[in-house]
Amino acid sequence: MKYKIKHTTTYHYTDFVSLCQNQARLTPKTDRGQICHHSRIEISPPTNYLRQFTDYFNNNVTVFEIATQHKTLTVTMVSEVELLTGANNNLNDLDIPWGEARDLLAKPNTTELLKAAEFTLPSQLTPLVEGIKDYALVSFTPKANLIDACNHLMARIFHEFYYDPGFTTISTPLSVVFAQKRGVCQDFAHFALACLRSIGLAGRYVSGYIETMPPEGEEKLEGADATHAWFAVFFPGVGWVDFDPTNNVLPTDQHITLAVGRDFSDVTPLKGVVFGGGSQQLDVAVDMIRLE
User: Fold this and answer.
1) Rg value, the chain, Cα
2) How far apart are CA 66 and CA 98, in angstroms?
3) Distance of alpha carbon 281 from alpha carbon 284, whole angstroms
4) In this structure, are residues 54 and 3 in contact, taking their beta carbons and an 8 Å threshold?
5) What are the counts of helices (DSSP H) followed by strands (DSSP E) for the chain?
6) In what order do the strands lie in the sheet with 255-261?
7) 110: Cβ–Cβ under 8 A, 6 or more apart, which residues?
8) Residue ranges in the chain assigned as alpha helix (H)
9) For the chain, does the N or the C end have fewer beta carbons within 10 angstroms?
10) CB of 67 within 8 A of CB of 47?
11) Cβ-proximal residues to 36 (8 Å cutoff; 6+ apart), any chain
């Protein structure tokens, strides 16, 4: 399955911005499950400086500077991505006890395990919160294998947490999300990661897109698709496997990965500093168009 993705971010300022410097993580990754065939970034006003690099987590990053006064900043990334279906199919037969995976990560003896072990540690947005380990152990019983326990945890979050777009912001503590069992995809991913890390497993945050389908007989609205977040778990000998607790599915042909990291702070799609500007309004529009 191939998609054309158009992601437009617009900042409207009440006063002039004299200088802005930004990092954009808007170029989809190429990895085991997908190929980014090409992408281009369009920025208005024109940039005075633009470069690209790969960050510590192997994400594609575009850095740019605008030294022209402006009241509106528009950043559009247009990409073509091919999803390789079947990347997760072999996992249904995977039978590794989760305790064995934990023990391998505790004493990593290969480069792959050493890199994955970094994701067993708490992060700023996935701290150790009282009660989370007990919550995790309901799914990760002593004899459970890793794939079954991860699926069980994902399903519990889907059924026990309420999707509420107005309840949280990026600064809402994980303890509040856990206590109220409310939030959005970002919160559910962070909560799952905190569960995994509390018992010594490696989990990473995944940012990306999910295709939304219009009601039958209706046309798809422009900009109606969405940025999304889910989590991935490291399976020794296999690699990273994705889980989407917001929809209770293993991502296959409707999820496209942008970037991965310890939590949202590592994968923010667009961030930077501005001089001036006053207050601001942010608008984001995403389109995913199937090419075949």
Assistant:
1) 20
2) 49
3) 10
4) no
5) 6, 13
6) 239-243, 226-235, 203-210, 255-261
7) none
8) 98-106, 111-117, 132-139, 146-160, 174-180, 185-198
9) C
10) no
11) 27, 28, 29, 30, 79, 80, 81
> Model confidence at 31, in pLDDT bands (50, 70, 90)?
confident
For residue 57, CA distances in Å to 70, 92, 105, 167 come to 33, 27, 18, 30
Cβ count near 37 (within 10 Å): 12
If phi over 0 gives left and psi between -120 and 50 gives alpha, with beta otherwise, what is residue 279?
beta
pLDDT digits (tens, 9 = 90+) for 130-180: 999 999 999 999 999 999 999 999 999 999 999 999 899 888 999 999 999
Contact call for residues 248 and 231 (beta carbons, < 8 A): no
Cβ atoms 230, 206 nearer than 8 A: yes
Residues 6+ apart with CB under 8 A from 168: 176, 177, 182, 183, 184, 186, 187
Collapsed DSSP state (helix, strand, coil) of residue 47: coil
Task: Compute the distance between CA of residue 195 and CA of residue 131 in angstroms, rounded to an integer.
Answer: 9
pTM > 0.90 = yes
pLDDT tens, residue by residue, 275-284: 999 999 999 9
